[in-house]
Amino acid sequence: MEMSENQERREGHFSRAVRAGKRTYFFDVKSTRGDEKYLTITESKRKFSNEEGKFYYEKHKLFLYKEDFEKFFRGLNESINFIETGEFPEDYGAIIGEKTESGEDISFEDLD
Fold first, then answer.
1. Domain holding 26: CATH number?
2. Model-level pTM?
3. What is the pLDDT of residues 38-54, one digit of tens each?
């Protein structure tokens, strides 16, 4: 079965696998039908099923679109900085770029 040009582009432009202990992270750049590039980050862990007596892979996938890069990386960098230094960012507790109708920052408790 032959793939169309659009299906081929959606397969991926770039891929990088990073092995980290028992996990492997896959960073894949793909395109939407509208030819906008996006990033998928997949965490894959090898596990053993006692019921079936064999190994399987548990996968978790995150889709990250270009318009969210800045906010995502800011949150990631602030989190890494906190782990390394113990210092909270100035706007700790606020969701980056999100406010209520009255203009107040949304807290994590508001998301339940």
1. 3.10.450.700
2. 0.68
3. 999 999 999 999 999 99
